[in-house]
Structure formats: structure tokens, C-alpha cells
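Data deposition worksheet. Section B asks for the primary sequence of the deposited chain exactly as it was used as input, without tags or linkers unless they were present during the calculation. Section C holds the resulting structure in C-alpha cell form. Section D is free text for depositor observations; keep each observation to a single sentence. Incomplete worksheets are returned to the depositor.
Section A, Depositor: J.P.
Section B:
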Amino acid sequence: MAGNDWINSYLEAILDVGPGLDDAKSSLLLRERGRFSPTRYFVEEVITGFDETDLHRSWVKAQATRSPQERNTRLENMCWRIWNLARQKKQLEGELAQRNAKRHLERERGRREATADMSEDLSEGEKGDAVGDVSSHGDSNRGRLPRINSVDAMEAWASQQKGKKLYIVLISLHGLIRGENMELGRDSDTGGQVKYVVELARALGSMPGVYRVDLLTRQLSAPDVDWSYGEPTEMLTLRNSEDSEDEMGESSGAYIVRIPFGTKDKYIPKENLWPYIPEFVDGALNHIIQMSKVLGEQIGGGKPIWPVAIHGHYADAGDSAALLSGSLNVPMLFTGHSLGRDKLEQLLKQGRLSRDEINSTYKIMRRIEAEEFSLDSSEIVITSTRQEIDEQWRLYDGFDPILERKLRARIKRNVSCYGRFMPRMAIIPPGMEFHHIVPQEGDMDGEVEGNEDHPTSPDPPIWSEIMRFFTNPRKPMILALARPDPKKNITTLVKAFGECRPLRELANLTLIMGNRDGIDEMSSTNASVLLSVLKLIDKYDLYGQVAYPKHHKQAGVPDIYRLAAKTKGVFINPAFIEPFGLTLIEAAAHGLPIVATKNGGPVDIHRVLDNGLLVDPHDQQSIADALLKLVADKQLWAKCRQNGLKNIHLFSWPEHCKTYLSRIASCKPRHPQWQKDNDGADTSDTDSPGDSLRDIHDISLNLKFSLDGEKTGASGNDNSLESEGDADRKGKLENAVLAWSKGVLKNTQKTGYIERGEQYNSSGKFPALRRRKQIFVIAVDFDAISGLIEATRKIFEAVEKERTEGSIGFILSTSLTISEIHSFLVTGGFSPSDFDAFICNSGSDLFYSNLNSEDGPFVVDFYYHSHIEYRWGGEGLRKTLVRWATTVNDKKAEKGEQIVTAAEQLSTNYCYSFTVQKPGVVPPVKELQKLLRIQALRSHVIYCQNGTRINIIPVLASRSQALRYLYVRWGIDLANMVVFVGESGDTDYEGLLGGLHKSVILRGVCSSASNQLHANRNYPLTDVIASDSPNIVHTAEECTKSDIRGSLQQLACVKG
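Section C:
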């Protein structure tokens, strides 16, 4: 409570009151209540009757009260409240200590187990476990950031990039994004991140070797926002386009591409975007595929040009980028900007909201899970500062700097990491464009240098808007540029200015706090900060010394910096924590010395620029002293200005992009695996009546005929194709494909196309689902096959007419193995040909029905395995899972019973299965997922069949991702898919309900599963399911075939 003198004053007043409540001389008003119970009074009157954030107002009232009795009563009330706050603080500190201790123990246990698995002798690099060894955390050294510092070096690097034609995708979803006149500060979602991603896209588009950059965001046509946010595409003007005209092409450059998702006519804050993320992913996937084909026609010789990387910004875009990366099998990058775990810790420390209230307000647990998923999926995590790694990322289960160092040392020695992976942390501070900036050389007493030809040129409009506030506008200006957010600490700055008379006499204060029309129209948090600032101005009588204009344009921000420099002022960023501090770079570029918080990115910036002073943001006196020192000492001011201008080139966008592209080049290239030099399969023309010979050749390389499907998945170390007896099977495969291709040739040569009536019964095209008008996906989760049989029959009967015509194809999507699916078909009286495809083992295997029954009923798609095998833990993961199952049995089993058992007969190379005897005793799915992440094992844990089975599959595999694979692989339009689910299901249930596809929820089906599997989720299902989506309908309670058809008619999937 340092610096809050009013607290000390009323504490002294409380001491003056005398003994406490237990004494006979307690206050008169309290004694007059009769039977006084301190506990009851505390609960009923103090806790529920007062706002703990308003103690100062209560003290003012108590101080102004003339009646000694009433004053004593008010002071006793405040004594109780202070005791309550102290108790809350102590409780919060205890909870924080417990959380930290638990996290430390889990980390230590995870490291020990991981090290035990990696049993080889440790190298010297692996032995160093000192947390303070920061060199393991990022790619930069302790000194200045390693950057190019000469024009010659940049030109040499640029010449090496010529000839490359890179396609890069950036994603930033929330806020309002456009290329010009950005509305920064309009709300908490439209801030520095918006400017950063737009400038990054523009800078990358200007770099040699980069052909196209797409910045994907949300399309919005709401009445309360500008029409420009509804434009599907906006081309960004490149700063140095004249230097790369020879590389320009029809579709080259940098673009903002707006994807419609969510309610198009309504602005949605980032906390409420989560239910619509799958819809964005599907729309973005469609754009990227189409653009890849267009670029392939222009510069790829007809072969698609896939993105070299997909880069997500913030948690929502990171989640989207991970799904897109998995759908396309391309590398992913991630930048957190601000992190959920750090925010949760800060909110819990404040003690104003409970954990449940925090989650309800900020959807913080969904955000944290998205950030963990981004760590699982990313090749590189880009940070602005070392502080972000040291103090924020280390809070996550998926990143441990000590284990990361061990893994990196093993990789350098070419030693196996036993399935463990850690994303690489790269420190790349944001860049800035400096070529258009001319530092202010004049001052308020003379003309600006270089203006001799136009001595009377008008001042920028924003200058008059600011200077009209000041009695003496020629005094040095202290400039703060931040939205009115509590964490920006603007009120402390105003207090420091108001209470330091020498500073008030020497300088003016300018507060650029975003744009506003009226205080009542602002969010409650922002309005509260602004009102506090206005009250402080009135309290200290700062009229004529503080400017706080209501409006400014983004294009006018450089003019604001110029005005501050013209007055020989200072820029200040007093935020409690500043992840980076881009405004500090901008201020330095305009010749302004800086005063900045010592918490976060400004430390790194100051180390490079050495152009100001760092302060403790909680120390009001320290802030005032630093400002006064720079304003009063002209020699120090000039030295800081000169240092900033001399070193600012180290933060230019070209250097940022050079480092950025170098990091991308270090990633192992990945792309859809069926795009081979000898494979010209034309998947773009999906309506073509016949397949080309190249398509047949493609299939012969990728599909394996199987009678039972067990152990058909192939991993990198699987030699099943070379086992005894496989030669006959391979020969059989070749003969089958040869006969099949002859049938296609005969059919296509004879007629040139397949007649519509024969099309759906012909074996001339594979797979059959490519010909369907619609695809119905049965993804109903039962713990017994009988229930699945009944639901399947109802769905078949509901669309019997369309099914007979062949216009509708069916996919079975389930946690069952292919052997269990075969049993299901036999038991239910179904034929494998009733389904076009089978997504089994929770999405880790994909089979097609075989039209040639002599070679077995199913065909496995091996390309799907190569598509999902990214970061699959293999044997190292299996050992950890077996150890976990043994631990669960030892702790919770009785009399030697086995609660969790490894199910070898149900497992495949890409799915490790366990059977569960007592689902209620097994730890929830989030605990197992956390255990694996702590050990750097990246996987997707799914509790299936009402908790009786656990499937662990690759991190980027799922049933919903398998549907996207079918779109990428075969061109199956996601908008023409209908997914049937129950009222609940497996723990991957939420992924089946979002996206462009339509969903039918069968009432009364799987209604009991939710209590068992979803009670211990990290976040409630309501946070991620769009209940208002027109693509989701419920059947009637009876769920008859007529009800199902009625729901399909409601979705306009079938006619009445």
C-alpha cells in the first residue's frame, strides 16, 4: 500500500477510536443494535453491503462526519473491511503459493520421467538445469539483438532470396482491421496487435522472395462499423513496391482477406468468438486452397503453391492456425501478443473476481487451452522479448525451458528424443517503417529546419486540438499514448504529475487515450479509468496543463510525436507490464527520449537504444523524478535523443522480416503429400465424370486393401509392408488396381462420360463420395453397437429415396476400430458399400469402402497417415501412457483389479487405446492431457464410449479434421456435409458441431454421456458451441425417421 497516504491516515484514525468490538466501550450506535454479533454484522453489513474498491470514498465521508458516534461507526466499518481485504490477500497469496508449488512438483516429476525415458548418457549441454540460463529459452544472445546493421549485408541477403516465390498466411481475428486509417483504441480489441499484423503483412509483401502474403481476419457488415470492414479483399500498399516490380505478378503482394464467420451484421468481442472458430477455419481453408491453385497456375507450373507457413496471432488465431496447419500439413508459427495464464494470475491476485467469474467474463480457460494447443502445433513461437519467455510462457504445461534445452541438445547430437517435441522460441522484436520519418529539428521558438521553401506551411490539425488545452503550449510536452485501461497505469502518471510542483511548472502532460464520442458509450472499465483521470485533474487543479483530446486519426499519430519532440518533450509508457512497447520504438524514431516501465519489453528496448530511463510503475515518486530529470537536464535530453536516433535502425521492418524469413527457412517443409512430381492428379475438377490415369496411379500408391483393417496404419518405423506374406498382398493390390484402371478406361473410352443413371452404381470413379451431391456423416457416439445400429437405420430410412438415387453418400465417424465397424455392419445387416468412407479410431484412421469385394471390404488411405503423423510420439508416448495406467491402478484399484488396461487389440500405429473398467475413478481427460504436455508429448486425448475407452491419437488428428482432409484431398465441399450427433458424446464432441457443415442433434440419443465425460472439462461446452447457429438443428424428442427428415428439410438438405 506504499504511496496511498489516505490508508495510513484512516488507519491512524481507527487506532484513535480505541479498543475493538470485544471491549465494553464499543461504539454507541453499534451497542444500540441490541444483541450485536460481530460475525453476523461482518457478513451481512460489511461483505455484502460495500464495494471494496471504494474505500477512499468511505474514508472521505467518515472524515467529514461531525458526529463522533457516527464517525466511530464508519471507522469500525472500515476496520472490518480492511481486515476482510487483508484476509483475502493472505488467502490469495496462499492459493498462489500452492499453485506454484504444485506446478513445480509436476514439472520436476515430468522432467524426471522424460529424462528416464531418454536413458542415454547426457551431454554437457543437457546437464545444465539452471533456470537462470536464459540462453536456452530463445535464439538471441544476452547482449544486443543479433541483427543486420549494414545496408551491404541486407543487400547481400536480399540477393540470395531472389527466385523464391513464397506464399505466407497470417491470421488475426478479433478487432477491426484495415490497411489505412486504423481505428486504434476504439475498443480493447482494436489496439497494437491490429497495427502490428497489418504492418507485418505489408513489410513481408515487400521482401525479396515473398510472392504473396494474406492476412486473414473477420468480415463484418454491421451498422455500427465502417463499410470497409465488409470488403472481402483489401490490397495493402507496399512501401518499397518500386524495388520489386520485376517480381510482381497478377496475384502478388500483400492482402487483407476477410472471411465471413459468426453473425455477419454484429460486432463480436474476442471473448465471444470461440463458438465460431471452426466456421472461420473452414472458410479460410477454402480460400487458401483456391489461392494455392491460382498461384500454381501463375508461378507453379500448374502445381499448387502451398503456404510456406501459417502464422496465428493471439489465442483465437493460434487455435485456427493449428487446425489449418493440420488440415493442410504445413508449418505453423504462433505469436501470443498477450497470454491467458498471465492474465489469469493477475486477476486472481487482484481478488475482485473468483475463478468462475473470471472464466465467465473472459472465457479465460478456453483461451488458455487454445494457447496450449498452439504450443502443441507450432514449429516456432515468436516472442518480442525475453521477459515473455521467462515469466509468461513458462507458466504453460506445454513449455518447459529446462526440458527444451535437453531436447535441443539431443537434436544437435542427432539422438532420439523418444517422441518428445518442444516449439522453438524465437525473439524477434516488432519492426517499424522509418523511411517516411523526419525527426523534428526545430522547437516552439523557431521554424522547423528544412522548411525554408514553405515557411508558412500549416501545422497539422491535431496540433491545435492538443495545444488548445494548454495555458502555455511552449512548455515541454510529456506524452502518453495508451487506451484507458487499468493496466496501462495512466492514473498513477497523472498523480505523479499533479503532486510534483517542479514538474508541473516545467512541462505539460498530453494523454492520448484512444477515440471516444461520449463517456457513457465507452465500456465500463475504460469509462472508469477516464473518469478517474478527470477527477484527478480536478483534484490537483491541472486545467491548462493536461490535454486529453477526444479524437485522433491513426495517420495523425506521427504528428503527435513530432509535436512532443518540437517542444523538447518526453514520451512515457507507465504500464504495469508491457509485453513489448511498440510506442517506445515510434517515439525514439521521432527523436523523443523515453521513460518506461521496467517490467517487460521496455528492458530489451532500452538495452538496445539507451535513450531514456526505466522506472517502477508502482512508484509514483520514481515516475515523477525520471520525468523531471529528462525535462530539466537538457544535456541528458539531447544525449538520449541522439542515442535513440543512432540505434533505431535495429528495429526496422526489413530487419524484422529478414530474421522472420530465416526462421521459416529453418522449418522442415511440409505440404499435402499427394502432390508429387509424378502425380498430376486433378482434384480441382471434382465434377468430372471420370478419373484420369494419373488419379488411378495416385490411388495405387496410397491405398491398401484390407480384410479387417487392424494394424493398417504405417508410421515412420513400421515395416509391415515388408513382413512375410506381404508380397502376395502387394501383388494382389497391383492386379486389383490394374483391373480397376482397365475398367475405368473401358468405361470412359466407350462413352466419354458416365450416364447419370449409371453414375452412382459404377466403379469408374474412386472414391464414390466425390460424385455425391451431399455427404451425411453419422457421428453418433454410443457405448454399445446396438444403439448405433438403431440410429443408422433411422437416418437411412429418413432419406431412403435420395439414398437409392445415389445423390447422398454416407460416412461413418466413430471411435470404433475398423474390425468393430465390420462387426457393426454384419450385425446391423449393412453392406460396406452403404458407406463411402469410415473415419475410425476417433479420427486417426480413414478407410473407404472397396468396390471390388474380392480384395476385402475396406481400403485404407495411407496419405492420411502421413498427413496427421506430425509430432506423433510413437513408442515414447506409449511407454508414458502405460506408466500412467499403472499409476492409476496402483492408486485407485482395489484388490489387484485393473481400472485402466492397455488394449493392444484395439490399438493401431496412430491410436493407442485403453479400456476403462470404472470410468468414474479415472482422472479426467484434462489431467491426462496435462501430464503428456508437461513431458513434451504432443497428442490428442479422447475419452470415448461413455468413458469406457480412451484413445490417444496424433495432436492434429480428429474426426472433424478428417472431414477437412476429405475436402483438401478429394474436393468434398464442407457446406454440403450434414453431421448427425447425439445430445452429447465423446470428449471431441464439440469439434463436430461447428464449421460450414450442418449438424443435426438427435434428441434423446447419448443424453447420459455428458455427466460422465464433460463434467470435468477445462471450460463449459456452452463457451464453444454456437447455439444460435442456423446450421445446427435439433430433432423432436421422439427422434423418429420423420423427425429426422423434418430436421433435414429445415436445413434445406432434402425436399418435402
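Section D:
The chain is about 40% helix and 10% strand.
The chain has a mean pLDDT of 80.
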